[in-house]
User: What shape does this take?
Amino acid sequence: YRDPADDGAFRVSEVCGNCKAYDQTEDMLECIGDESGNLGYCQLYKFVCEASYTCDKWVEGGPITSEAQKDYKDIL
Assistant: This one.
């Protein structure tokens, strides 16, 4: 988990905010207490992370924004 500016091999499109494991459901955002939209919950690493950051486990197809999308277990 890191700031993409610190990663020379980073792709601009591969940020937490569009990762398949990035949970931004209404319930999760209420739990986190974030109204800015800049935070979400990583379902892979189990922590709150910033949308503009990246990590080595980034998965195409996100973020999770509805309860219907919460079948993230198939990404592991």
